[in-house]
Amino acid sequence: xxxxxxxxxxxxxxxxxxxxxxxxxxxxxxxxxxxxxxxxxxxxxxxxxxxxxxxxxxxxxxxxxxxxxxxxxxxxxxxxxxxxxxxxxxxxxxxxxxxxxxxxxxxxxxxxxxxxxxxxxxxxxxxxxxxxxxxxxxxxxxxxxxxxxxxxxxxxxxxxxxxxxxxxxxxxxxxxxxxxxxxxxxxxxxxxxxxxxxxxxxxxxxxxxxxxxxxxxxxxxxxxxxxxxxxxxxxxxxxxxxxxxxxxxxxxxxxxxxxxxxxxxxxxxxxxxxxxxxxxxxxxxxxxxxxxxxxxxxxxxxxxxxxxxxxxxxxxxxxxxxxxxxxxxxxxxxxxxxxxxxxxxxxxxxxxxxxxxxxxxxxxxxxxxxxxxxxxxx
Length: 378
Fold this sequence. Notes:
This protein has 378 residues and is an alpha+beta fold. The chain has three domains: 2-68, lambda repressor-like DNA-binding domains (434 Repressor (Amino-terminal Domain)), CATH 1.10.260; 70-117 and 140-231 and 321-378, no CATH class; 238-294. The protein has 19 helices and six strands. It has helices at 7-16, 21-28, 32-40, 47-57, 61-64, 88-101, 126-139, 154-159, 199-214, 220-235, 238-250, 254-268, 272-285, 296-308, 313-318, 325-336, 340-350, 354-362, 366-377, and strands spanning 2-5, 65-68, 75-80, 162-167, 176-183, 188-194. It has a four-stranded mixed β-sheet with strand order 3-5-6-4, sandwiched between helices. Helix 10 (220-235) packs across helix 13 (272-285). It is elongated, with a radius of gyration of 23 Å. The mean pLDDT is 88.
C-alpha cells in the first residue's frame, strides 16, 4: 500500500478556502516549488506541514491523504527519442500524469465493463512475436495490404480500451516521441502520440504503442523491446523478409542492396531501419549468414535522409500555421476517433482549475492550456 495526497479533494477545497497555491506556500512558510510538487503529486508535505495544510483547506487527515494499493500505480512505457536516456524523473512525471488521467475515467463516453482482450503471456521469442502480429493483421483485415497506414490501427486501440491523446510536443524539445500510461485499476490505457513527427516514424511509434497496449504487464526495457519487435513484424513480417533476402543475396554490391531496401521502404511507407532490423532478427532466429548492408552509421544517415523526405503529421492535419484550439480539437477527434477531448471538456466545465489540469496532462504552455480550456467549455 502507498500513501499520497488526495489531489481531487485538495483541488476542490482550494477555491472554497479562497486560496491560491502561492497563498498556501506563504501560509505554510514553504517555497512555491514545494507546493507545486504537492499539487502535481510528486511529493507529500512533512507531518507538521501536512497538519497545517489540512487545517487551511478544512480537510481531515482521512480526506487529505489517500491510501492506494501498489497495483493501482500507473504502468508507464516510453517511446523515447534516439540517444536520450530514460531516467527516474521521466517515469515519475509520467506516473503523475497517470494519476491526473484517473479523473477522466468516469467521464469517458463508454467506460469498459470488462478487461480488454490482450496477449496472455507476451514474450520476446521471434516466432511468438510473428504470430501475434499476424493475428492482429488478420483481425484488422490487413493480411493482403502491403501498405498499412496509421489510420488502419485506430480501431484496434479502441478494442483494447486505449484512449489516443494527440499532442504537439515539437521535434526536439521533449524526451519522448510517444508515451503509454496503463491504469490497472480501470484497465484503460492512455496513448500519447506526438504529431510533430514525420509520417513514417509516427506510424511506427503508433504500432509500437499498440504493442504496449497488447502487453500492458510488460514495462521497462522488456516492454520496449516487445513493442518494437511487434511493430516491426506488423509492418514487415517474415514472409516479406524472406522474399527481400533472396533478392538482396543476388546483389553483390552493398550500395545496391541499400538502394533496394530504400525502395521497398518507400513502397511500404516504413523506415529502412525497420527493414534492416527485421532482416537481422530473421537471420538470427534461423541461424543464417547475415546479409551485409554495410556499417550501421552510414545506414543511419540514409535513414535520416529518408525520414526528412516525408511530411510531418501535424502539418498534414493542420497546415503550416499553428492550429487554434478549435481546429486542434475538431481535427484530432475526427482523425483519431478519440474520446479524450470530450472527457476533458466535461472535466473543464465542472472544475475551476481546468487550465492547470490541462497544463499538467498535456505538458502544454499555460497560456495555451487556458485557451484550450476556454474552447472546451463552450
